[in-house]
Amino acid sequence: MNDINNETPLSLGVVNKIIPVGEGTRVCIDCADLLTPTEGVLVGNTGHGYVLVLSENRSTDTYPPRPFRINAGGLHQYLYQEEGTLYLSELRGGRLLCVYNGSEQKEVPVGRVKMEKRELVRVEIEADGTHISSTLQYTDSVSFLNKDCEAVSVKELQEREEIYCFPDEPGRHLGKKIKEEINEY
């Protein structure tokens, strides 16, 4: 496990919409190390920003805790890493993964990546004047970090609730930031 010196400043965003979108392929990341309850990855539908999705570190009505796993959502999403982005569908075991909490980040090895069909929902957020969206599995094991630094599951999430995210500027080529005019929705 490596600590990363630089920080990615997370912001609070306000949830505007939670929309069921039907069945799709979601990606679970199984890390080869334990994660804390407030650690997770930054994922998003577009380069405008990413939402912090937490590890499966809590017991729920339907799942035991899996403190090594992050149910990161739809395979099409960007996964934000310090060196750039990649699609969740591109992630493989053996890679180092940058995980974040509210104030720090570190790297952990990926043990495996698991993709399965599940019911998905789109979460739309406004943060610092930026529209951010993420497509996630609709299950109680998918959680966010709210303004009180407590986990809230996607099934409990309410409109107008504040959760942590990372606003960004769109414009990437093969995961590297570039200057370009781009519209993403």
What radius of gyration results from the CA coordinates?
Answer: 15 Å
Class from secondary-structure proportions = mainly beta
Total count of strands:
15
- Share of β-strand residues: over 45%
What is the overall pLDDT average? 90
Helical amount: under 10%
Largest sheet: 11 strands, antiparallel
Order of helices and strands: EEEEEEEEEEEEEEE
What are the low-pLDDT stretches, counting only 5+ consecutive residues below 50?
1-6
Principal-axes shape call: globular
Q: What is the rounded distance between the termini?
A: 36 Å
| Distinct helical segment count | 0
Describe what is shown at a glance:
The chain is mainly β and 185 residues long. The chain has no helices and 15 strands.
Describe the structure.
The chain has strands at residues 2-3, 11-31, 40-44, 49-54, 69-74, 78-81, 84-87, 96-100, 105-127, 130-137, 143-145, 151-153, 162-167, 172-173, 176-177. The strands form three sheets. Strands 1, 2, 3, 4, 5, 6, 7, 8, 9, 10 and 13 form an eleven-stranded antiparallel sheet that branches. Strands 11-12 form a two-stranded antiparallel sheet. It has 185 residues and is mainly β. It is globular, with a radius of gyration of 15 Å.
Notable characteristics:
0% helix; mainly beta; 185 residues; disordered N terminus; two-stranded antiparallel ribbon; single chain
